[in-house]
Design a protein that fits this description.
Blueprint lengths: L9 H8 L6 E4 L6 H9 L4 E5 L15 E4 L6 H7 L5 E7 L4 H5 L25 H7 L2 H11 L6 H13 L5 H8 L8 H17 L1 H15 E11 L2 H13 L18 E3 L9 H6 L7 E7 L1
Parallel strand pairs: 1-2, 1-4, 2-3, 4-5
Antiparallel strand pairs: 5-7, 6-7
Helix pairs in contact: 6-7, 6-9, 10-11
């Protein structure tokens, strides 16, 4: 577990679950098992079902009869619970984003700080890598990726550089991509720009926002009344979707065209104001600085 990140907002998220000793809980992002261990410490006869799409996380499973860890993407939450003959659970925790473990594994290609193969797959069984996207997507497809997931308003110049660069040679490594982007990464803001580019590629490779959307839309059916949904997000795209869903029951919300139609959201917000790491946690774990915690209760 030491190679995984320190659990972020641990006390706040576990408190937010409002754990009953005999309840059934779900940890959708097992990772190093930090949050899972904290949940187990609160259980007596209860159970914990954990998900993780990265097979390497299975090595972190503690020996505990109350815990079942599934090598599955959390977008299959409802199907897996149905298979286990669990109709509803008392709480769901999701710690989104990428763990320090993945950034620190140079061969996975998640970080622009190390020259490595542009992979970025959370699940190594997936076929499409970041390199595949850069070398095979059309110009409009690449513009969509960087506009939607890096929030670059006018990605035409960026995409043009990638298209010209891949005509010279195949883009295989982080170094190849950084060489192409040199004209756009001069100056003090280059790290933030590159972080957004790598974030966009990672989201596209792993279909992260699609998976998050599918998972959230399943939670009302599988969460018992009074049960809690606790989500830690790390960038605005995730947080915006989580906040919208917890408030409205929709993952993307537009004002109802018919004012006579009223919709009852399935959850109520527990924390009206988003919870962020305290100063002592930021000092202890600087990588927690972008974390945002939201908690909702099933009505």
């Amino acid at each position: 577990m030491s190679s995984y990140h320190i659990p972020v907002l641990l006390e706040e998220s576990i408190s937010g679950l409002n754990i009953r000793p005999d309840g059934i809980y779900v940890d959708l992002t097992f990772g190093g098992g930090g949050h899972a261990r904290a949940i187990l410490s609160k259980l007596n006869t209860g159970r914990l079902i954990a998900f993780d799409q990265d097979e390497s996380s299975m090595a972190n499973k503690p020996e505990d009869d109350r815990l079942l860890v599934l090598h599955q993407n959390f977008r299959f939450l409802k199907n897996n619970l149905r298979y286990l003959e669990i109709s509803q659970v008392d709480g769901i925790l999701a710690d989104l984003g990428v763990s320090s473990h993945h950034f620190d594994m140079e061969e996975r290609g998640f970080s622009f700080r190390v020259d490595a193969e542009l992979d970025m797959r959370m699940n190594k069984n997936r076929e499409k890598t970041a390199a595949d996207i850069l070398n095979s997507y059309t110009g409009p497809e690449l513009e969509r990726v960087f506009r939607d997931y890096a929030e670059i308003r006018h990605p035409e110049r960026l995409v043009g550089m990638i298209l010209r660069g891949r005509e010279i040679h195949v883009i295989r490594t982080t170094g190849d991509l950084l060489d192409i982007l040199k004209p756009m990464t001069r100056g003090g803001r280059s790290k933030k720009f590159l972080a957004r580019i790598f974030q966009a590629l990672r989201i596209e490779v792993n279909e992260e926002l699609d998976a998050l959307r599918e998972m959230l839309e399943q939670t009302p059916e599988v969460t018992a009344r009074g049960g809690r949904l606790v989500v830690i997000s790390y960038h605005s795209l995730e947080d915006r979707m989580v906040k919208t869903f917890m408030k409205t029951g929709f993952t993307s919300f537009k004002e109802d065209e018919n004012p006579l139609v009223r919709h009852q959201p399935p959850f109520r917000m527990v924390n009206k104001k988003v919870i962020t790491p305290a100063t002592d946690e930021l000092i202890r774990n600087p990588r927690s600085r972008s974390a945002k915690l939201r908690i909702a209760e099933r009505i």
